[in-house]
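Table S4 entry, RNA-metabolising metallo-beta-lactamase.
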Amino acid sequence: MASRSSAEMTLPGEQDLWFLPLGGCGEIGMNLNLYGHAGRWLMVDCGITFYNPLQPQTQPAQLTADVQAADPSFIAAQRENLCGIVITHAHEDHIGALPYLWPRLQAPVYCTPFAAEVLRRKLARTDLIEQMPIIEIPPGGTCQIGPFLVNWLNITHSIPECQALLISTPAGKVFHTADWKMDPAPVLGRPFKPQVFKRLAAQGITAMVCDSTNALKSGFSLSETACFHALREVVSQAPKRVLVTGFSSNIGRLISLGRIAQHTGRYLALFGRAMENMVGAARACGYWPDDLPLIDNAHIGFLPPEEVLVAATGSQGEPRAALSKLAEDRHPQLLLAKDDLVIFSANLIPGNEMLVSRLVDKLKAKQLQVLQAADTLLPIHVSGHPNQGELAEMYQAVKPALAIPVHGEATHMQANAAIAREVGVPQQLLGQNGDLFVLAPKPRIWPGFVKAGRVPIANT
């Protein structure tokens, strides 16, 4: 057995509270975080990323992979010290790597019922379905995991049951936001409740580890209800077929499309296995309305164009997704025709620019109408992440001693830190994957504590 590095031999003591991101700090996606206290580690999220060159730390620079995950070698080498894995929500960049990395980790998984349903569907075709302990925590619940007391806090985002975390130890407390926004009128779930987070200030929060995705955008993000009204306006004016592409996990957006189909005399079909699986999980957990029918995909090609509304995977230009097949006339159930409308109801994830540009060119070459967010003033997509106004309000509500921006590239995290400083957070720590953030007893950063990298899950 290879000897461990000095970093791997170092464990936090009784007075220590550590934060160690292995993925998702300095990038958007592939979230994998470790919290350390009293000789134990707690993992928060275990996600994937797509379609980027593998970093040379773990693989040759020229190698690419369809799906990648953060390199778990550091914690896998001492998995006896890993007391649990907490999943904040069921987005792929937070849950998608678990079926691949869990055999190296062997720790119980804690998540809400919806995330558990999504995870079990991922495991159904593997022998892990009988091996992985999945412990369901109700939204807003509490659980002691080793030396960590974890409180799940309901927060609005673009997927059911998204949870922020309050992680408490005798050495200090961390408010881990995960992905969030302040949505006063979500299509699915309850509105954002600021009082929940204002109460955290009285607890003396050591550090707030915060989503930075939209830290460069001023003001406040728009509500999911605003997107519903915008999409309804566009679809109601379209004379032919309409296809909307977006993220399969945005159940609220899919419910909006179902309502729009009802209002405009169309039938809604779902194209893409991931989207069908997510809606299946939503049905199983009671989130899909009983009065919202879906048409069998096999029938959609026989309907008059003005009665067709399709929700399809592939908004990031993924070659195997439904939209790419439709753009190349490779889909077995539908051929798009001249002047059909394709709406991109999703943000472009950094790194996917070329794939999306090529896809849009293919669609326009077929004389299809293409509508992206930049083409209209209507909010045909709204983000699930906080703008500058929301970041400022959250920092003012929670009043942490430390701000630690994550879930963003360097410019996003720097902007997040600047907002925290402007609203009175005493100290901000900026780092990247592999850096150790010492939160207590004395805050500092240990750069390069772990050699961070990526591992391939599926090769092209």
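The first helix runs from residue 6 to 9.
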